[in-house]
Amino acid sequence: MEASDKEGGVSFSERLPFYVVVQLVSVLLPGAALLTEVTVLGIHYARHPGTDLGFLVDALSGIRGAGIVLFAAVGVSGAFVLGYLSRELAFGAMGRIERISRRWTRRKHRAPESWQRVRDLVGDKTADALVEQHHVLKLLDGKGKDLGIRSGAGGGHVADTSLEVFAYSKLWLRGRSAAFRLDFVELEINVLAGLLGPVLLFAVDVLVVGDEPGAVRITAVPVGLLLCAAVLRSIRRLRRTERWEALRNFAFEAAIQQAESKRAIG
């Protein structure tokens, strides 16, 4: 069901451009980089006359007419598939890291702590009213039935209680409150996830194909791994931030509505 402008939400047609941007910058563009890197690596190991770059340029310059359209279609399709798989692998790795961290710290959920912070921000009265209106929030107060930890969900998330609350809050804000949506955080997470594959494969290309000095080529993979570790750390930080802000903004939206109602009555 599409949200009306009066409610502050967006319809599917209004959200479609954002979805296209996400797919473009986190799937298609990284996939194009991956496809190029795989092609360069494949040419290096294939038998051909001349240098790798010269052979690639000659092959591309020989494409004419309908072949250009076919080449573009295959290229875009291949880039999308590679980019999508690369992003999924990145999210899978992130989910595994989060599960290991959760076992290491022996803390299953961060949501109750976040919920207490929300109560401190908006007050117990507003928080209790919010729980009464939205049954899913009873999970955070320990009054609802704990759904437990199940198999992984999309994005490498663990399908536990905190994920259900996060998903509910995010969908509510997306459909009803344009000011509190977390689209840009979601976009940043997807872009970072899409970077992992190209960065790592580029380091491999430099090691195998590059004509730089041996010391530079050898250090390419460790540097690439360090960059990937930094990206994973940023993704983990942003995912924690996204969960917290979804819950906080959900409560803020309700508190603002309550304040506006009191002001209108007064």
From TrEMBL:
Domain of life, per lineage: Bacteria
Keywords carried by this UniProt record: Membrane, Transmembrane, Transmembrane helix
Transmembrane segments: 20-46, 66-86, 189-209, 215-235
The protein's name in its UniProt record: Uncharacterized protein
Natural source organism: Amycolatopsis heterodermiae
